[in-house]
Design brief:
Layout lengths: L4 H13 L6 H15 L17 H17 L6 E4 L5 H19 L4 H14 L3 E10 L2 E9 L1 H11 L4 E11 L6 E9 L2 E9 L4 E3 L11 E9 H6 L4 H5 L25 H9 L1 E11 L8 E8 L5 E6 L5 E4 L13 H27 L2 E4 L6 H5 L13 H4 E4 L5 H19 L10 H4 L4 H41 L4 E5 L2 E5 L9 E4 L8 H20 L7 H14 L15 H26 L6 H64 L5 E3 L4 E3 L1
Antiparallel strand pairs: 1-17, 2-6, 2-12, 3-5, 4-5, 7-8, 8-9, 9-10, 10-11, 13-14, 15-16, 18-19
Helix pairs in contact: 3-5, 3-10, 4-15, 10-13, 16-17, 18-19
């Protein structure tokens, strides 16, 4: 027995009532944080007084973003899938999975904007969310050709008809000037395919149960979406059900079209288009519920209207396709704190002092004046202009006097410096020289500045580590789950300029991700310095003939140095020793250079002015170098052949042993049949015994 639609919707409404983002508190906090980031007025401003607003929140957020972009949107690895065993097949699958998922997340046209928005949401608001899913893709393009003959038209059509094309239609065909050739346009429709992708979710539209520790722990997780009726029609939702969903927001209604479509079946084109483009609000929810009433709550996906009980999708779905991040984690809570939360009070205090300072400065520069209205013409005092005249019947020094204002600017600046220092203590975003007096600057040491810099870096590095270990880990593992479950076709993608193919439906191992984002990950200069030291040590060990390092280890160091420098491809600079084709090309180039040099020497031999002995010495030197290179290549090839032959011989011995064991097993069976009894026998690869 299963729940009815009404019972399901009642349960969801009850769960939504306890969701944190459907109450006003979290929405109010996020709205206030955004106002602080934008530097909007506080609402306590006084008329005709300073209304300046400090930009502390924006300064902190924008100083964090370059570091986060450098760490997560650069060329260095973020997450890798780790095999659980040393199986060659599992290791290869983990490497393939790492490359493909990283390509899906960081190498798409929308990747930078989506990830940048995700990070900024976590900095400004209390959390940021992305949603990942698999979408159906069907691309159509038009290809135009001019001046094709009938034979060329057929050849062109055959060339366009690849394995990825579903159909090729001729849209237009017009005769060219000579009437034997044609201008033709083809419409090429590719086969439908599935591709995993992700998009940002506005925090105001995200729903999660109160008190949840993370996304997977929550009873209810989901988001609110606005779609058109036409999109619901494409999802095979019956038209009567679509019409039950009210329009999202308000709009002007054309009274002449009320009731004309689709209720009475009139197919007015304008009305149909208007109906298809009307926007409605739906909710994509992932709820834990005992739908089949077997006493166990399972996760289900329910796509329903926000208003009413129109259920579009109701299916078992054992995954929560959302990844959340907060800049500052809070224990036992899916929602943490943002950098804005740390800085809001500082911005309010600093703005207040700045306003008072500007008010004081204005009064100091424009002091009030005391006058004896019996002897001074007050109208002259009220007119402020350059070279103006003030008429008086008495002594000016006695009848006119400025009412002075004490300047508080120095104390205000000292207080602002203190607030900046306090902000740096909590966020790590203070310039090294900020808050120092000019007289004391000469007494400061480089060690102090390094300490300030390291403290600031540590705070933003912790933010990056939190993002990597929470949201990024969930996104990488979730995208891998999605493509494994729903992508059933082979995909070709580019990694470091080389095409790779993968079919996620054939992945059969479960891998956990390992974060490559560690302390110091954002400091490229420090990283390059460390790698340079490692490279020099490797060169020394290699020169000493030590077995502690080899060409592959040196290449790995160079690879990390190139990526740490911000360059995308190592193969543009160095050959990978684990790819023989790259080394063969390098060796061939060396031999070609040697041949060219020999040819040049032969030409010199034909010149009678050149000393024969000098030419002979150069030829012998080049021959020796070429021979050494050929010997090295020959030794490498012989070593490879030896390894291959050894592996073949070992495999042949194993096969021979297995054949012998099989023969003995057959003989043992015959003996049992002849003796009409079961013998106590034991067979293994080392010995055979029969009792």
């Amino acid at each position: 027995m299963v729940m009815s639609v009404g019972e399901l919707c009642d349960h969801i409404r009850e769960a939504e009532g306890d969701a944190v983002n459907l109450n006003s508190e979290l929405r109010r906090d996020n709205k206030e944080n955004m106002e602080y980031y934008l530097g909007e007025p506080f609402g306590n401003e006084m008329p005709e007084e300073s209304q300046v607003v400090s930009t502390d929140v924006s300064d902190v957020v924008e100083s964090d973003m370059p570091s986060l972009a450098r760490v997560f949107l650069g060329n260095s690895s973020i997450m890798t899938f780790q095999p659980t065993r040393e199986s060659e097949e599992e290791v290869q699958e983990a490497e393939e999975k790492t490359k493909y998922i990283d390509w899906l997340i960081r190498k798409q046209p929308h990747s930078f904007r989506t990830l940048h928005g995700w990070f900024k949401d976590s900095e400004v608001k209390k959390f940021g969310v992305v949603k990942y899913f698999v979408e159906d893709i069907e691309t159509t393009r038009e290809v135009k050709f001019k001046g094709l003959s009938q034979e060329e038209i057929q050849i062109t059509q055959d060339d366009l008809n690849t394995s990825e094309v579903e159909s090729i239609d001729i849209v237009s065909q017009e005769e060219a000037g000579d009437r034997e050739t044609f201008d033709i346009t083809f419409k090429v429709t590719n086969l439908k395919s599935k591709k995993a992708t992700y998009e940002g979710v506005e925090t105001e539209n995200f729903i999660i149960s109160r008190g949840a520790k993370d996304e997977d722990d929550a009873e209810l997780v989901g988001d609110i979406m606005v779609v058109t009726r036409g999109e619901l029609k494409e999802m095979k939702v019956p038209t009567p059900e679509i019409n039950k969903i009210p329009i999202s927001g308000t709009r002007i209604i054309d009274t002449n079209r009320i009731g004309r479509f689709p209720f009475n079946g009139v197919s007015d084109t304008a009305t149909i288009n208007q109906w298809a483009s009307e926007k409605v609000e739906i909710r994509d929810l992932y709820v834990k519920i005992d739908f089949d009433e077997d006493g166990i709550a399972e996760r289900r996906r329910v796509l329903k209207s926000s208003v009413g009980d129109v259920v579009i999708i109701n299916e078992a779905f054992n995954h929560v396709p959302y990844a959340m991040i907060s800049s500052l984690l809070m224990p036992h809570s899916a929602i943490g704190r943002s950098r804005t939360d740390l800085t809001k009070s500082n911005q309010l205090q600093k703005s207040t002092i700045l306003r008072q300072s500007f008010n004081n400065l204005w009064l100091h520069n424009n002091p009030r004046t005391v006058v004896n209205d019996g002897n001074v013409h007050v109208d002259d005092m009220l007119v402020v202009r350059s070279g103006g005249i003030v008429r008086t019947d008495g002594i000016p020094q006695q009848d006119v006097m400025e009412l002075g204002t004490t300047s508080t600017l120095q104390s205000s600046l000292s207080m602002i410096q203190y607030l900046d220092f306090a902000r740096a203590q909590s966020t790590g975003t203070l310039m090294a020289s900020q808050g120092l007096n000019a007289d004391d600057l000469q007494d400061e040491t480089a060690t102090r500045f390094e300490g300030i810099e390291e403290e600031g870096e540590a705070k933003i590095e912790l933010v990056a580590r939190v993002i990597a270990e929470t949201g990024m880990r969930k996104l990488y593992e979730g995208m891998a789950w999605m493509v494994t479950q729903f992508q059933d076709t082979e995909t070709e993608f580019m990694v470091l300029g080389k095409p790779l193919k993968t079919n996620p439906s054939k992945w059969k191992f479960e891998h956990h991700t390992f974060s490559e984002v560690g302390i110091g990950a954002g400091d490229n200069e420090r990283l390059l310095g460390t790698l340079t030291g490692i490279y020099q040590l490797q060169q020394q060990l290699k020169a000493q003939g030590s077995s502690l390092t080899d060409e592959a280890d040196i290449f790995n160091t160079l690879d990390r140095m190139i990526k740490g420098s911000g360059l995308p491809r190592t193969d543009e600079f160095f050959n990978n020793p684990e790819r023989p084709e790259e080394l063969v090309n390098a060796e061939n180039e060396i031999l070609r250079n040697a041949v060219q040099e020999l040819q040049g020497m032969v030409q010199q031999l034909q010149n009678p002015l050149v000393e024969p002995e000098t030419i002979k010495q150069k030829v012998n030197l080049v021959k020796a170098q070429s021979a050494a290179q050929l010997d090295a290549a020959e030794l490498t090839e012989k070593a490879r052949q030896f390894d291959t032959e050894t592996a073949q011989k070992q495999q042949q011995q194993i096969n021979d042993q297995n054949n012998k064991i099989t023969e003995l097993a057959l003989k043992l069976t015959e003996m049992e049949q002849e003796a009409n009894q079961q013998l106590d026998a034991q067979l293994d690869q080392n010995q055979v015994s029969v009792q």
